[in-house]
Amino acid sequence: MEVQVRILGAATKLFMELGVRNISMDDVAKSISISKKTIYKYYQDKDQLVYNTISAHIAEMEKNITQIMTAESNPVLQIAKIADFVLEMNKNVHPCVLLDLQKFYPESYTHLTEHRNKFVFQSINQNIKNGIEAGLFRSDLHHNRVTRIYMCLIFSMFQNTLFEGEEQRDFREEYIETIKYHLYAVTTEKGKALFKEISWLSIQP
Hints:
Blueprint: H1 2-18, H2 25-31, H3 36-42, H4 46-71, H5 75-89, H6 97-104, H7 106-133, H8 143-156, H9 171-186, H10 189-198
């Protein structure tokens, strides 16, 4: 089991930082000084290894987001703290990872999409409902529609094809501006005042 955990950890790091297509099973094996044959004892092929790394990534996301939403009752602060976590978790992710999954690992891409359509949708939707009830979000919001709009905004940040031709891209700044855009659109004056006070918590360069 320890070897399998090491393989999964090494693969996750390499796939996320260098791109899924760019990394071979040999690369994973060499990174932790084992033979490729050893990897095949636990994973029948690269497709299965990729799927397991995506599953581990999803599990980590869901665990942390659930903890944040449980520990923090304020809907505005929930969004800021989740954004902080997402930025930290994805700070070294290669821009081609999502495109690699979509083109070459459709099962893993579908798995990730299902996570978004279920867990992420439910989390955002609940946050909006809570914000309305707390008087921090506008009462005239259609929470399902706003949830979908917000998801489109957030996940567009990870679609590298939208930014082709740009030599330099500051993902952190784009992500923060997207969060601000959403919050200024949905908050009441009370919510806006709170948002201005928190100063983005630890979301700093």
